[in-house]
Design brief:
single chain; 4 helices; mainly alpha; elongated
């Protein structure tokens, strides 16, 4: 069984190793200059990320209801020209129920 002092020693060792790894990674990645001062952080957004953001905005800005389609369906119902393809409806129902 471990004593408290042994656990503290293990934790100190882990902390020392983590700090050393951070210093090593910092030196390798060029985060510090020769004088040892930190350079400011920077973020670069890829063209793909910009495209995804634009597409997401377009979808978000689009209306939830297609008013033109609703108006056309209302007019067809009012005129008595709207009909439902029963086979297509049945097929869609079966597909949506997973049977």
């Amino acid at each position: 069984m471990s004593t408290i002092s042994q656990l503290n020693g293990q934790e100190r060792l882990r902390a020392t190793m983590a700090a050393a790894a951070l210093r090593k990674n910092s030196a390798v990645s060029g985060m510090t200059t020769a004088a040892g001062t930190r350079q400011p952080d920077a973020v670069t957004i890829s063209d793909n990320a910009r495209s995804i953001a634009a597409a997401t905005k377009a979808v978000t800005d689009a209306p939830d209801v297609r008013e033109d389609r609703v108006s056309a369906l209302k007019a067809a119902i009012a005129a008595g020209t709207y009909s439902v393809d029963s086979r297509r409806l049945a097929s869609k129902l079966v597909t949506s129920l997973g049977t």
